[in-house]
Amino acid sequence: MTSKRLLHNIGPAFSITVILLTGPTVLQAQDPAEFYRDNCASCHTIGGGRLTGPDLKNVAQRKDRAWLVQFLQSPQAMIDRGDGYALKLKQEARDVVMPTINGMSPARAELLLSMIEAESKLPKSQFVGLQISDRPFTERDVELGKSLFMGHKKLANGGPPCVTCHTFNGAEGFGGGRLGPDLSKAYERLQGRKAMGAWLYAPATATMNPTFKKAALKEDEEILPLLALFESTARAGGEDDRTGMAGFFAAGFAVAVVCLGLFAVIWRARFRAVRDPLVEMSARKVLGGRS
Predict the structure, then answer these.
(1) Same-domain status, 230 and 264
(2) Where in the sequence is the domain holding 108, given as residue range(s)?
């Protein structure tokens, strides 16, 4: 058998073997920009200033590559080890610790850092961040934000309303969902409209990211009024007092009492409908026997 024929015969199997062996590595190396957008953009910009975390433009000039690769893989471990620069980052972020990113590996970290370096050299990076307006919010903005949060006004790209998973102090009805955190003080925790706007623009949680990846919020039409609502709520102070939940249980108790009352009435009527003929029949038998 010639070498050409041998290669022809083993070619498909060899190709499949190569794909199986290298597939995960190839996939892991794909699109660091998309990975950054999904996992980093809600807390960091490249040339747009600080959000919850620092601006990453020229980050390779602040610490050496080996340190950055290690930090990206496990920020908390670096803090627990007492690393001075990691502790400084935590302090600057008001004790917010960068989470360990799922899928982060030394190879992924290297690709991510190379992408950040390339973006840092551009006049304007694609990750400069959301340039949210700094105009004062109005009452109309707050009301529109509340309508969007509660679902009275649908989101333009078809995303679910915030009330599905979240609540805030002042939410209508039963007070909103409990799957996500109470957002009454989120504006304060995220240090204002810029950082919270970035979070709404590119949420990085495992629940919100896949939900809003294809249903992103509109900057001026939706993010801005939601920020107005959260700023207003933060100024009012306090968190949801759970009156909505108490109302839910009170309503449930009232419905249960009404249902039990109806059941008692129906059962009583049915009981009489069966009992009365039996009593009457027994009475007739007794009277007939006496006569």
Answers:
(1) no
(2) 25-120
Q: What pTM, to 2 d.p., does this model score? A: 0.62
Give the total number of structural domains in the chain: 3
The alpha carbon dihedral of 222, 228, 233, 239 has a sign of positive
Q: Measured in Å, how far apart are the chain's first and last C-alpha atoms?
A: 119
Q: How many CB atoms lie within 10 A of CB 258?
A: 10
In 3D space, the residue among 163, 161, 185 whose CA is nearest the CA of residue 175 turns out to be: 163
Residues in the chain: 291
Q: Where are the alpha helices (DSSP H) in the chain?
A: 3-28, 32-39, 65-73, 75-80, 84-92, 106-120, 139-150, 186-189, 193-201, 208-212, 224-236, 243-290
Query: 180 in the Ramachandran plot: left (φ > 0), alpha (ψ -120 to 50) or beta?
Result: beta
pLDDT tens sequence across 252-273: 555 666 666 666 666 566 656 6
CATH label of the domain that carries residue 98: 1.10.760.10
Identify whether 183 is part of a domain: yes
pLDDT tens, position by position, 92-117:
988 889 999 989 999 999 999 999 99
CA distance 34 to 30: 9
